[in-house]
């Protein structure tokens, strides 16, 4: 028995209904189309808009802003269900969801009133703006500059590896106002794509995950008025890090969703496929690999759901989220590959989702902190874990 109910049982009836709605939406709109999106190498904007119409971009958004005001755990479970069918779509949608929530919470009232309704409706897609062509995990090393001018700021620089960049109309972007201040000089701005100085790059061509719409944009003497400042220098860096534990937890949950789908496919196939006069699943070499995958899935869910509960409680989730992200992403890459191996060459056929999930798991291993970054984060906390001086 999978561990999903262990988290679902702490959700409210309203939240369980949202998870059920996400599951039904994914089965109806994502599952039949995900392979086609990949082959066509395109961003499924029409399905993102349909998900917004179903309220899947407002789960955590406060009720005062037109959202549902539900828990982080509810959001995590909803997107775990969506990722069972396609990680790329789930990740694109959750990034838009997060942009809606952050913009509503941190934006200036006038700008929020003007743009948030369009974001809720899916008419204006949001994205984050952290990574740059030469800056990834080293967030403190941002090169995009913001110079104070009359009435606002002038921004110059480039962003890269941005989810939803292919279509996003609003970016919650970070820029350096004073390099001598390091991370304390970073500020956060609401960047509108239809303003002068915004140049969208061509979406990146990948070997998987095209529904993510990943790409970049450039700002050339882009003027951001004072109302576009979401966090002033000295506050933006801390605000950006505040959401990282949640991101690591929901990426781990998405890996669980992908592995569950891969296991279900592999077990069904190996039950039906006969070799040497008996089902493939009856061969110990295959069966034990799938047993290992199922065991790792249970362990990953325990780590992930614990992190989610701590986040909802406002407790320290830094290490729990890092444990979940490290374990879930690493095991998903290996165990989805094992599921493909159990199916033989047929595991790579387009009619099955396993190769797409393997690409998704590899993307997950880099997003919101790579496995190597998780090792560093956990390693830095080891003395405290054992009550030893740093």
Could you explain the architecture of this structure?
The protein is α+β, with helices and mostly antiparallel strands. The chain folds into 3 domains: 4-125, Butyryl-Coa Dehydrogenase, subunit A, domain 1 (Orthogonal Bundle), CATH 1.10.540; 127-236, Butyryl-CoA Dehydrogenase, subunit A, domain 2 (Beta Barrel), CATH 2.40.110.10; 243-382, Butyryl-CoA Dehydrogenase, subunit A, domain 3 (Up-down Bundle). The chain is built from 13 helices and 10 strands. It has helices spanning 4-8, 13-30, 34-40, 45-53, 72-83, 87-106, 109-121, 236-242, 244-272, 284-313, 318-342, 354-364, 371-385; strands at 126-129, 145-149, 152-162, 170-176, 186-192, 198-200, 215-225, 229-231, 274-275, 278-279. A hairpin with a 2-residue loop joins strand 2 and strand 3. Helix 9 packs antiparallel against helix 12 (354-364), helix 10 (284-313) runs antiparallel to helix 11 and helix 11 crosses helix 13. The two termini are 41 Å apart.
Overall CATH architecture of the largest domain: Up-down Bundle
- Helix and strand composition category: alpha+beta
Low-confidence stretches: none
The main β sheet shows up as: 4 strands, mixed
CATH uppermost class of the largest domain:
Mainly Alpha
- What percentage of amino acids are in beta strands? 5-15%
Element order, helices and strands? Answer: HHHHHHHEEEEEEEEHHEEHHHH
Q: Taking all residues together, what is the mean pLDDT?
A: 93
| Helical percentage | 40-55%
Per CATH, the superfamily of the largest domain is Butyryl-CoA Dehydrogenase, subunit A, domain 3
Tally of discrete structural domains: 3
Instruction: Give the total of beta strands.
Output: 10
The radius of gyration is 21 Å
Number of helices: 13
CATH fold node name of the largest domain: Butyryl-CoA Dehydrogenase, subunit A, domain 3
